[in-house]
Amino acid sequence: MLDVRDADAFVEGHIPDAINIPINELPEKLTSLDKEKPYTIICYAGGRSERASQFLAAEGFDVTNVMGGMGAFHGSVTK
Fold this sequence. Notes:
Elements: E1 2-3, H1 7-12, E2 19-20, H2 26-29, E3 39-42, H3 47-58, E4 63-65, H4 69-72
């Protein structure tokens, strides 16, 4: 799970074991991601994660966007 919200929002509550890379930092942090691994991308409402998913897919990553973002997630959240 890759959470593309800003660090403050991530600290307020996130999915356990999610990686936080804010969307504006994705281009510079691409090398920290593994192209052999699939990623599920999430944000607050789904817009940023959709853009991040499109960017990462164009870079050769296997990605799935969480439509509706954190509001659509029904599991536990860690603070």
